[in-house]
Amino acid sequence: MMTGHHVRLLMLEDNPRDAELIERHLRRAQLDFSLSLVDDEQGFRSVLENNDPDLILSDYHLPGFDGVTALRIAKILAPSTPFIFVSGSIGEERAVEALREGATDYVLKDRLSRLPSAIVRALAERRERQLRQNVESALRASEQRFQYAAAATREIIWDWNLSTARIWFSAALRDHWGYSSEYGESDSDWFEKRIHPDDRRDVVASFQEAVAHRERWTAEFRFARADESYTNVLSRGMVVTDLRGEPVRMIGAVLDITERLHLENQLEQVRRIESLGRVAATVAHEFNNVLMGILPVAEVMARTPDGGPAIQRMAGLINDSIMRGRRLTEQILNFSKPVEPALIPTPLDSWLTDNLSEMRSLAGKRIEINLNAPPGLVVSIDAPQMQQVLSNLIVNARQAMPEGGKITIGVEPDAETAALSITDDGTGMPLEIVERIFEPLFTTKRSGTGLGLAVAQQIVARHNGTIRVLSKEGKGTTFQILLPLSRVEAMSWTGTKT
Fold this sequence. Notes:
- The chain is an alpha/beta fold.
- Helix content is 47%, strand content 24%.
- The chain has a 6-stranded antiparallel sheet with strand order 10-9-8-13-12-11, sandwiched between helices. A 5-stranded parallel sheet has the order 2-1-3-6-7, with helices on both faces. Strands 15-17-18-20-19 form a 5-stranded mixed sheet.
- It is rod-shaped.
- The relative contact order is 0.06.
- Mean pLDDT is 81; it is low at 491-498.
């Protein structure tokens, strides 16, 4: 009878003949063991404290000592060691009570042939118990490391149980996207329904394919925040299989890439602007030459006395069209050959306050402008160029509120930048317009040139800043300009307009 290793036995027995009989049965069963024999409480405690036996055999009745007391001592000093009663008169009722106290088994002395198998079974159960405890301990440690990693990263960690269709999310889901703590674990339907409708089918299909083929999963899509606005995300996952190789879970992370895509798009816009600018400059010069050839003819027509009123009106219309064309060519030339900004450290609150009256004049009487600009935020700007950006945004806000409304101008610190926001409560814009708002020559206005916001983006970029827009139909629009905070003290601000 094999146990798999050498067994250290502790026997509590006051009868030497019974002890010898028990040992003989174990030898006969070819059990590999060594034996420590004790017959009192002091010896029993000494072995438990110093030798750490693999299994305890104990008589039930002992002079001045008893097996139940020994069992209770063993549960304190060696709680994981199996304890088997070997007695000649334990009785059924006491045996059941002993098992309730924590004994592993009991064997009657007139049935010692069962003792070797009882020992082997007790040791096997102990090994299984220790293995389970080790696995549970490792699992707890692994889960704790996972929780620490999830808390440390800015990414949203998720664990998708494929059998229950439940998904666990790290706290970043709440911190980044505004969901309450109740969404820490949700049905997979909850996650799928928050994928943008235009992206949902492809994302779900790619996920199912990755699970079916036990492959890594990667997808970019739009996901709804708690406020129902969409953010661009990159999600990656890895399939976890069971011992049979069947997929049981997928663990992964979601990274918000909205800002990255915005910066990439802005960089692409700048490149397109620079390329378009080179072409535009040539076209503008040629167009201007054409206009200059027409202008003298219109002037002659206007001075001809025999032309009559109709000719005079036509000459006037031609002249007005030529002037508008010249203004357009000037805008194109300014756009194609931007002037490098002369950056001066400037306190934003003073600069905005100084321009407040002009902004109100641009907005008109029907629109209220509120300014919230705390002191202490200094940025390096070219005041005339940034005034052009601000004026353009105020005019855009005014056109979004034909019946009047409110514009809020705010300044807040944002990491190492100052965030200047211009918010209106106008009509807002659909997503397809927001995505193209900074494209050169793109406009939704009948009389617009489509260069205002492209130029604004260009100016902000030359200030080492970024400009972005948040808008939703019926809920207004916010333009936000991020400018690096100046490490130089502000120069004396006189409030002089340029």
